[in-house]
Amino acid sequence: MTVSHRKPRPSQSNQERSAVAEPGVRYHCDVCGADITLTVRIRCAGGCKDFDLCGTCFCTGSEIGQHKAWHDYRVIEQHCTPVFCPDWGVDEELLLIDGCQIYGVGNWMDIADHIGNRTKEEVEQHFMDVYIEGRNGLPSGDERAARAVEEWREAHPLDPSFCGEEPLPIVGPDPDFTTDKSAETFQRERRERIERLRAAQAAFQVPKPGKPLVSGPTTHSELAGFMPGRLEFDHEYEQDAEQPVKDMEFGRVYSFGGDLMPTEMEALGTGATQGKPRMESSGRGGPKQVATPPEEPEEETFTDALEGEPMAVDEATPAPAAAASTSAPAPPAENEDAKAEEATDDRAPDWDEDPLDLELKLAVLDIYNDHLDRRAFKKRFLFERNIIDYRRLVASERRRPKEERDLLARIKHFATLQTAGDFEELFHNLCYEEALKKTIRQLQQYRRMGITTFAEAARYDHELAERTKRQLEAAEGHLSLHAASSTGRSRHRERSQSVAEKGPDDEFAFASAPSIQLLTRDEQQLCSALHILPQPFLVLKAALLTYSYAHHRALTLQHCEQLFAIDPRKLAHVYDFFRDKGYLQAVNMASTSRAGAFSAPASDHAA
Description:
By secondary structure, the protein is mainly α. Helix content is 48%, strand content 5%. α15 crosses α17 (521-530) and α18 runs parallel beside α21.
């Protein structure tokens, strides 16, 4: 018999990768090599080990190797009857047990490959439900499992001091499970399940690998100094908070159980603290005690002295003779170091902490804890509001109008005092308030203009926009005409500057000025562009045309500048306007023919 196992390959395409909707162990005929996994096979029982034949080779009496046609045989067919639960057949149960023996319980991926047509999750869930908890997928199985757990708890009560996970019994499969499902129905359901599994695998698309997060110091694609793998910053908030406490040491504090603490000699031993400098105490804790180390051989004392680590010795105890006679006088530098070490070792390894020093150190620790609390609050605020997603935050702010961005910049400091939802609600309410204020100001403007309905307001806004557009066009047109005239470009530049100097802030209420109804539409635009009130314009118009009519000739710009003491630039615009409209020519013709009083062209009067 040839048995092959389906093994997953490390790198395959979406169509070629190892699929769970495939049989696990495959059987092949030992004579012709045909695949007999899903058919009836004949196994030799006459001494040949694992020798299988297909139906065709068995009927023809094929012989190969030690196998003979007259050997005993067994007919092996597919066992597709549920035995422990409704959706697992006997063949799958046998393959599950075989896979657990080969690969070990817990290696569900290899066991699923061994069974075939099953996923890792299905295999694990079936093993836990059937072989551990004793369920069979029916309500009766759930009742059996619950009853077994209750009996176990009654027989094995837990200790009240037990804090771990409660141990539960291994119930095992239900041997009394029966089903009324026929083999044909079970096979049809299995085929449908395999078809659904294959369809899901065919529609599966391998997701594109995302951008890997960089966790190196001070390197991040969006936020400099942030390490996403550790959720830390290279430069923390209040970076120097550890400086005051990094070298702090405490002596024996009796108010906090210091009398129960072992001494340094008892905790570390005699050789661990010899010659080790410690932080100096304030000296207010009482007289210093001299440490008396245990007696050691003279050779060790001499070795310690050579190594520059002298031991603390009682002053009344004389130095050993061997050490005194053998040691050479130390150089001046070594003498100074020895004196410094003796001054340090003159103090007890465990001193009594002074109450004032203790209060000062505890106050420093309280300040340090406040720094840590603020640092943790800042980091928690950043992570909860997802502020580390800098690109998304900047993009969302850019999509807001300028008024909302300015308002958000003014109230950002309130975000730390509220939750994310409360702050968002506050921001929306403030935006709504600003919109209401803007609407109120607009309505007040309408009321001042005598507008009482929204239809009139819409008509007013439309006419205002049209009037502003015509004024700009008229101003630009008159400036261009005057630039092409014989007066020269320098005068045109001066007029343009004078008109440009008048900004929108200088615009007066021209629409409500008196005598405006006496002007034509073009004259109104000219007066609005030059900021001339209607009455002065009418006086200038009457004087200019009357003088021209009386003298039987059209006036020139130079004559006008001599007659009228007004701004020459505005006078030039008015003169060009009268000339372009034909007023001066009409007056000249009327004075020549004595036709009578002057009348303005009818086409220029307002309707």
